[in-house]
Amino acid sequence: MRLKMEKIKIKIKKLSKDAIIPSYAYKGDAGLDLFSCEDAIIFPGERKLISTGISAEIPEGYVGLVWDKSGIALKGIKTMAGVADSGYRGEYKILLLNVGKENYRIKKGDKIAQLLIQPVLTSEIQEVEELSKTERGEGGFGSTG
User: Fold this and answer.
1) Which domain holds residue 70?
2) pTM of the predicted model, to two decimals?
3) CA distances from 10 to 13, 72, 107, 116 (A)
């Protein structure tokens, strides 16, 4: 069974002549590649905000989620702070953390993260005195072994 995938339009504005418009590397990919618009070095244990040189308009009812690129994650580079709400119109800057043991060099045009566009369900919050009982209950970290 094949699902028919809905396509939505994402408007992209270049904020720099060096910016690269996000793109899918392969047909059927979930994430749009995001590219660096600057040269940088991230030292072990350091967090650095990297410019993409773009802003975007994600339609209401959707969100952009920023995720690691597996190739640079293998080298110890993790993304952080990865939610781009539909109302945000500023530059997409990617917060990267080097959890590796070596300096990581980024050059203009390098792929630094990927952006997944997802539908959003909003919730109605209701304050209560008690929550329903479950088999798991309050079992948290390590509760399943």
Assistant:
1) 14-119
2) 0.88
3) 10, 25, 26, 12
